[in-house]
Amino acid sequence: MGWADVFTRILGSDLSVEIRAFDGSRSGARDADVRLEIRSPLALSHLAAAPGELGLARAYASGAIEVHGDMYTALASFPAVALGDIPPELRRELAIKLAGYRLWWPVKTPAVEHKPKRVWRRHSKSRDSEVISYHYDVSNRFYEYVLGDSMAYTCAVFPSADATLEQAQFEKHDLVARKLDLREGQRLLDVGCGWGGMVMHAAEHYGVRALGVTLSRQQAQWAQKAIAERGLADLAEVRHMDYRDVAETGFDAVSSIGLTEHIGLKQLPSYFSSLADKLVPGGRLLNHCITRPDGTHGSRPGKFIGRYVFPDGELEPVGTLVSAMNDNGFEVRHEENLREHYALTLAGWCANLDRNWDVAVAEGGLDRARVWRLYMAACRLGFERNVVQLHQVLGTKLDGTDAKMPLRPSW
């Protein structure tokens, strides 16, 4: 029995993709548009060393497994298979075969896998700075190839299904601005500001004095340059710093777009209370982040995402976030789920990476480009299948008992 046949026995005989293995075996849908190639015994060694998604990810990142054709189509073709679903006879057979490959084909962990430099306390300032740098301080140019002109690395809001990614990112920033009721002369704090998209949008289109903070030095440098080039230096600023170290207070609004995923469950009370302390009475917070669909899932991501994409990331159900906001300085006034929009956003990023593949590889390295190709396609599928969601939650810091909100939403 060839190794292609083994994979077919695990995944099912009705696969819509073709599987080819280094031993010459073939299975699945012959001559399909998408093909999984097991290029080397090293792929099996990775599976032996780390059974499951981590071993598969390592094998793909290192090039021992290749996906020919569209990655999203390939992932969508494979059913979710747990070890318990594999018949006992096949499990025993695989264990024996894989043990031999691990012995004769030892593997090294791909260089792009995150390895903490020191054992810092989870979500301490030092550790947060390290893991944010790992993901975001890759190369601004690499992110330009993936994200496009908007340089926004968070869920866009599509006004229509045929809107471009840039139009949808503009709509996202504008929706946040409208929910916050931004007006000329006000002050905005954008925590976890990325490359400054929200900061520049608020300054340019609403006349707001906006301060953004990010733990990524490369993001801050890119944003400050973009602010100067757009003539917004009198209104906008991005600093390389932890949101916990912002000394200023008296902001009219706070936006947090894609930061809460990095905060951690235990830190949510201090996170929301610190943001409330930054606001004037009646000020608003818009919290935009990825969430779990319900409370039955753990906070920690899978091993692939945790090792290769967002170390120390934690996702909570929206109810947990709403309760934390309510208990720590905010009255929640509105929330909405935008998970379908994130699937569309990721489809746009995947298309950008595929279109710019050669230059993205030259800029960020082949291993990293392969990781991004895999994780973005997998995340697109996750949002489509309701494995994860994206919620915007709007809260206000009461001025006595006055929420300073209209009777009906004005945005």
From TrEMBL:
InterPro entries: CFA/CMAS (IPR050723), CMAS (IPR003333), SAM-dependent_MTases_sf (IPR029063). GO terms for biological process: methylation. Its EC number is 2.1.1.-. It is an enzyme of class 2 (transferase). It comes from the Bacteria. SUPFAM superfamilies: S-adenosyl-L-methionine-dependent methyltransferases (SSF53335). The keyword GTP-binding does not apply. Keywords: Lipid metabolism, Methyltransferase, S-adenosyl-L-methionine, Transferase. One of its GO terms (molecular function) is methyltransferase activity. Belongs to the CFA/CMAS family. This is Class I SAM-dependent methyltransferase. It comes from Saccharopolyspora griseoalba.
